[in-house]
Predict the 3D structure of the following.
Amino acid sequence: MHHAIETLKTRGFISQCTDVESLSKAMEDGVTFYIGCDPTMPSLHIGHMVPFFAYRHLRDAGQKGIALIGGGTARIGDPSGKTELRKMLCYETLDANSDSIAAQLDRFIGFDNDTARAVNNKDWLADLNYIDFLREIGSHFSVNKMLSFEAYKIRLETGLSFIEFNYQLLQSYDFLELYRRYGCRLQIGGDDQWGNIVAGVDLIRRIEGVQVFGMTFPLVTTSDGKKMGKSEKGALFLDTSMTSVYDFFQYWRNVHDRDIRRFLLMFSFLPVEEIDTLTAPGKNPNEAKERLAWEVTALIHGKAEADKAMAGARAAFSTSGAGGVGGDKTAMPRAVLPLSKFEAGYNIVDLFFDAGLEPSKSEARRLVQQGGAFISTNGDIEAVTDVAAVISRDKLNAEGELILRAGKKRYLLVTVE
C-alpha cells in the first residue's frame, strides 16, 4: 500500500474508498486530488478542516492538491446533511466569502499553483448553458439511483427542492472539469459526500472512459457524541472575529482525555511515535492537552498567537494566576466594566451577565445557584452561591482587575474604567 494511504489510515482519516488498491498503484506515479468547500459563511470552522489536514499529508507524500472553492455550487446549496433548504446568499456575499476562505486555506496550505492550488467553480458554472449541460451531463444520471443516496432520502421526508436536486450533477461536473483541466483523479471529503463523490467517479468513467477515485473521511465527533468543533459558544471558526484565538486554544485544552490521542493524530503533524509518548499510560493528560492546543492553534493562527494563547491559559489555570491575576493575561478574553458599579456593589448575577459569561440573567442566576460562579483576585478562588451577593471594589486588585470563572473551564478577565 502506498505510504500516503498508510499515513492516512494510521492517523484515522480513511472511512471509505472506491478502489484503494488501484489508487495506491496510481499514487506511485503521482495523483492530483481535490477537496471542495462551499463559501456559505465568511469563515471555515474546524470541522471543515479534517480533509484539509489530509490534503497536507497527501501533498507531503508527493501528490498534488486542489482546493475547490464552491462559488458556483454555493449559489444552489448542498442538501447533504441538511434538513431544510439552505438560505440563498447574494452573489456579492458569496464572492466575498470565497476570497476570505481562500485566504484562510492559503495560510494553512500554502498555495504555489503547482503542488497546491485554489480554484473557484464559479469560473465554469456561472455561465453554464443549461440545455447543453442537460445533454452532456444530465443524460448520464439515473433519478432512481440518485434517490437511493442517503442525503436525498432524508430530505424527501422534509421536502427536497428541484434546485437542490441538481447539486449532485454540478459536483460531479466539477470533478469532470478538474480532470479535464488538471488531470485530477481523486476527490476527497467527509462521509456525507460519499454519494456525490461516487456519482462524479461514475460520470468520468462514462464520459472519459478512465478510472478515477473517491475517498471519504469520518465525520468526527467527540467521545461524548458531540459534533467535532462545537463549543459552548457554537462552532469553532478560524476567523478570529468569530472565535477568539484564546477560545480556540481553550477548546483543545479542554477536550476529554479519551479524545487526546485521536485529535493529536488528526489535527497535528507530530510523528506518531511522539504522540504515543505524549499519551502513554501514566502520563499527565494535561500536558498532552496543552501540546494539542498549541499545535492546532499554531497551525491555524501562527506560532506567535499560539504562544500568547498558551500564556493566557497558564495565567488562568496556574496556581499563581488562575486563580489569580498573575502571569501573562494578554490573550485572555476580557470585559471592561464601570468602576462605579463595583463602588456601588455589583450584583453577582448582573456581573456575570454584563461581562458576557452568560447569555441571559436567568442563565447567570442558574449558574450562581448551581455553584458554578467563582471570582478571584490574588490567588484565592471564591465561590459565590447567593444570587443577592454583591461584589465590591475591594475585590479588585491594585490594577483594577478581577477574574471571573463560570464552571470549570470558562475564564474572563474583568478590568474597570
